[in-house]
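We include the pair:
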Amino acid sequence: MDLNNAQLNTLSQTSNNSNAVSLITQSADSNYNPTQMQDMLNKMNEFITALRR
C-alpha cells in the first residue's frame, strides 16, 4: 500500500512541473510571421525544459 501511495503522490506532483510555464497570450497572425514563430519555438522549449525537471 505504501508503494501505491508513493506512486500516486509522485504522479500528482508531476503536473506541477509545467505550472511555471506561462500561457501563450498572443493570437495567431493570418500571415507567416517569423517573430511569432520564434516566440512559439521558445515557448515550446520552455515547456519541454519544465517537464524534464
Remarks:
- The mean pLDDT is 87.
- Residues 34-51 form the longest helix (18 residues).
